[in-house]
Amino acid sequence: MTDLLGKHETKNIAKPNTQKLADNETKKIEMSGSRAKKIKHSYKVKDAENAILLQTKYGDVIIEMEPDIAPNHVARIKELVRQGFYNGLKFHRVIEGFMAQAGCPRGDGTGGSGKKLKAEFNRRQHKRGTVSMARAMDPDSADSQFFICYADCPWLDGQYTIWGEVTSGMEFVDMLKKGSGQSGMVSSPDEIIAMTMIADL
Question: CA spacing 20 to 30 A to 98: which of 39, 131, 145, 182?
Fold first, then answer.
């Protein structure tokens, strides 16, 4: 299972299986031109080509990507977003005060897009709103799963690839249904309605 280690937790994690969704299995979300224009101009992002609109049932979340610190991860996330890969996927693992994790096509933390990424660990710190890649024990096992931090998580620094930051809508991330137990797996989890590059609106 692709997992994050808690502050005082170590364990062996099985090698994740990967599953690629066929193009006809990805959800395509239609949006009116007027709504897209309104969204595009209502969020002041530094670079529309490196900014994502993540839609939840609670509201819109804006993630600004950081290609300067994780160019390969940013490039891959953009590919997946533009393929519609994330549309309809669940926030399958959500731990109060820690993080919300999504991006698994199987909905249980064991799936991915089928393309593992070489780690791009950097000096950025895991703080509230940080967006980073989930992985298994192998540092180069990140694929499509990512997590958004609810609070500062310094024990993750230098061990997971940070590739972005929530710059708007963190209050909606706070509203995601939380999981239970140590694993934080969520029963009937909230989903990503759609992820779209701001430049494509």
Answer: 39
Give the CATH number, domain containing residue 149.
2.40.100.10
DSSP state of 1: -
pLDDT along the chain (201 residues), means of 10: 51 43 53 61 88 98 98 98 98 98 97 97 97 97 98 98 98 97 95 97 91
106: left (phi over 0), alpha (psi -120 to 50) or beta: alpha
Instruction: Name the 3-class secondary structure at 13.
Output: coil
| Alpha-carbon distance values, 111 to 9, 42, 122 (Å) | 23, 34, 25
Rounded to an integer, what is the distance from CA 26 to the centroid of its chain? 17
Q: Is the dihedral of CA 160, 161, 166, 172 positive or negative?
A: negative
Residue 20 lies in a domain: no
Question: Token pair for residue 68?
Answer: 């300067």
Containing 38, the helix (H) or strand (E) segment is helix 33-42
7 falls within a domain? no
pTM score, whole prediction: 0.83
Q: Decide if 154 is inside a domain.
A: yes
The amino acid at 71: P
**In-domain check, residue 11:** no
